[in-house]
Amino acid sequence: MKNILTIILGFCTAFAVANVDPQPGPKPKNIGIALFRAWQPMDVFGVFEALWELGLLTPINVYLIDADGSAAMVKPFNPFATGSNTTATVLADYSFDNAPPLDVWIVGGGIGTRDNATMAPVIEFTKKVYPSLQYMISVCTGASVLARAGILDGKRATTNKNAWAFVTQFGQRIRWQPHMRYVRDGNVWTTSGVSAGVDGILGWIEYVWGTNVSTTVTNAMEWYHSGANDDIFGTLHGL
Amino acid sequence: MKNILTIILGFCTAFAVANVDPQPGPKPKNIGIALFRAWQPMDVFGVFEALWELGLLTPINVYLIDADGSAAMVKPFNPFATGSNTTATVLADYSFDNAPPLDVWIVGGGIGTRDNATMAPVIEFTKKVYPSLQYMISVCTGASVLARAGILDGKRATTNKNAWAFVTQFGQRIRWQPHMRYVRDGNVWTTSGVSAGVDGILGWIEYVWGTNVSTTVTNAMEWYHSGANDDIFGTLHGL
Asked: Is B199 strand, coil or helix?
C-alpha cells in the first residue's frame, strides 16, 4: 500500500502540474503577511517557509505586519480547557500605518479571527490595500477577513473545512467551495485550513513563476504537494 | 489521476496507521523547541502547529528556548544572492540557563546549523539535557546537533535529503537512512527536511497518545500524513 502511494505521489509531484509557464509582465516583489493576536502558527509560517525558499531563487521582500507594529502572540483569548500553554510571540516588521507598498497581501487564520475587535483593523487595512495589489491571498479562516472586506463578493472561494459555518456567514453571493484544497478567482487566492495554505502558495508560485520554480521550492521543503482539487477534508469534516 | 490520488490518500489518512494504542505510563508534558539565529521557519512552526493542536486535547507546555532568552531571527548570516529580504523575529520564552525542566527537547534545522559559533551552545544544552528527557526529536538539519552531541552514535537516523553530506559528516557509526521520512530509534526521533518534521511529530504523537489523538490533530491541520517509510525525496535529491 505504502509503496503504491509513494510511486503515485512521486509521479504526481514530478509531473502532475508540469508545464505551467510563468506569467508575463512584472513579478510581484513586496509581500506582506498579517499578524494579529491568536494567529495560527502554520497559517503564517507554512506560507513564510515557501516564500523563504522562493527568495533564494528570485528577489522578494516578505514583511510581517500588524495593527501596531509590535509583538503578536499565538496565545488565545481564553485559556485552553486542558490548561495547556502553547504560546509564541513574533515581532512585526511594520504596522498598518507605516507598511511599505505591497504587491501581495496574505491573511492567515486562527482563533483571533473570531474576535471582532482584533480583526477590525485587519479588515480595514485589507479593504484599503486590495485595490493596489497584484494578488490577494488568504489561508484558513483568514478568508473571513476577505469576506468581511467585501473582496469575495460574487467570487469562488474556500476556507477551513472545520470552521466552515463561521467563515461562510460573511460576504454576499460568495460561491464557497467545500471540496477544494485552494481556489483562484481572478487575482484572489483562498485556501482551505492550515497546511492547505502551503499547497495554495505553491500553486500561486507556480502560476506566477512557472513550474520549474515551484518544483524547486516544493522539493527543497520536501513537501508532498496537493493540487487545487485534491481535498479530502471537506468530506472528513462533514461538508 | 488526481481522483485516484485523492482516494488513496483518503484511505491512507483514515486507515493506514490505525490501531496504535497510547504508550503506558506518564505522558510527556513540558516540551522545549530550540531557537537560534537563522532557524528554518517551518522546522519550528510546523512542529509547533501540531503541538498547538495537541494542546487542545491534552495538557502540555511548549517553550521556545534559545542561548540568551531574547529574539531569534530567521535572517541568514550572509545576504541571499537574489537580494531577497525574508526575515522573521521570534521571541524566546527562556534561555538555556533558565530553561524549565523538559520532558521533550526538539531541535530544528536551518542555515544556522552551518555556523559553529551559533550552534555551540545548542549542542552543549542538548548534550546536558538529553539524559533527563523522555524523548529527543530533531527536524531537518537539526539532526546535526544531535550527531555533534553524540546522541546518534550507533543509532538509525535521518535528516534533510538536500543537506545530506553536511549532516552525515558528524557522529560515529550512525546508520543514516536516506529513504525514510522519519526514524525512531529508542527515544530519539529524527526527521527528514522541513515539512517532514510535521509527519515526524504526528508519528510521535501517535506513538505516545495513540491513533485517535494523532488523527484528530492531523485532520484539524488538514494535513496529508506521510508515514515513516513514505519518502520520495532521497531519490529526488540523488541519494
From this structure: helix
